[in-house]
């Protein structure tokens, strides 16, 4: 069976340590899932490519662009999510949070999520448990126990490789377990793209100033 995994990466530079960590996690997950007799199909959502459209969607509340709609649909149909963000001001980046904010509240119901973050210093490592884990728990996702934090000095170290492999194993087990149990989270999830006609904000305000 082929598992659909969406990798959400919020790195801003090209190349970025955030994307590097995301790719390493993806490779480890693929190996772990293959070891359990299944395959993985990846979709990578580079949030930096959606930055302008996300900002417009946030300030206008309008219908999402085709690119954002496709990203939302990919998340809603995924069997698992790998979410990786750089750390800004001791938390996930604003770009990362904007994307999470436009998702339908039901799009992550019961889905396994592997959380990871990058930063220049190990002092930001608590971002996993004090910012990312509560965020995805609030959205009713199944956040796996091991998160992966990588400071600049961690890349290339055996310690980081060990954490990646442990997290990948837990994530792969969660994917396979949902299959064995016959539980398909996508049945209880939605992308939020089917919202029907949207009433223009100007029309909603018409008459409130006494002129309409």
Helicity, as a percent range: 40-55%
**Count of discrete structural domains:** 1
Shape: globular
Question: Element order, helices and strands?
Answer: EHEHHEEHEHEEHH
- CATH architecture label: 3-Layer(aba) Sandwich
Instruction: Give the structural class.
Output: alpha/beta
How far the N terminus sits from the C terminus, by CA atoms, comes to 59 Å
State Rg.
18 Å
Counted beta strands: 7
Oligomeric state of the chains?
Answer: single chain
Secondary structure tally, helices = 7
Unreliable segments of 5+ consecutive residues: 180-184
Care to describe what's here?
- 35% of the residues are buried.
- This protein is globular.
- Strands 1, 2, 3, 4, 5, 6 and 7 form a seven-stranded mixed β-sheet that branches.
- The chain has helices at 17-34, 51-60, 66-77, 94-102, 127-138, 158-180, 201-205, and strands at residues 2-9, 39-46, 80-88, 91-92, 112-119, 142-143, 148-151.
- It has one domain (2-205): Flavodoxin domain (Rossmann fold, 3-Layer(aba) Sandwich).
- The longest helix is centred in the last third of the chain and has 23 residues, at 158-180.
- It contains seven helices and seven strands.
List the keywords:
Rossmann fold, alpha/beta, 212 residues, globular, seven-stranded mixed beta sheet
Compile the SSE list and pairings.
Blueprint: E1 2-9, H1 17-34, E2 39-46, H2 51-60, H3 66-77, E3 80-88, E4 91-92, H4 94-102, E5 112-119, H5 127-138, E6 142-143, E7 148-151, H6 158-180, H7 201-205
Parallel strand pairs: 1-2, 1-3, 3-5, 5-6, 5-7
Antiparallel strand pairs: 3-4
Helix pairs in contact: 1-6, 2-4
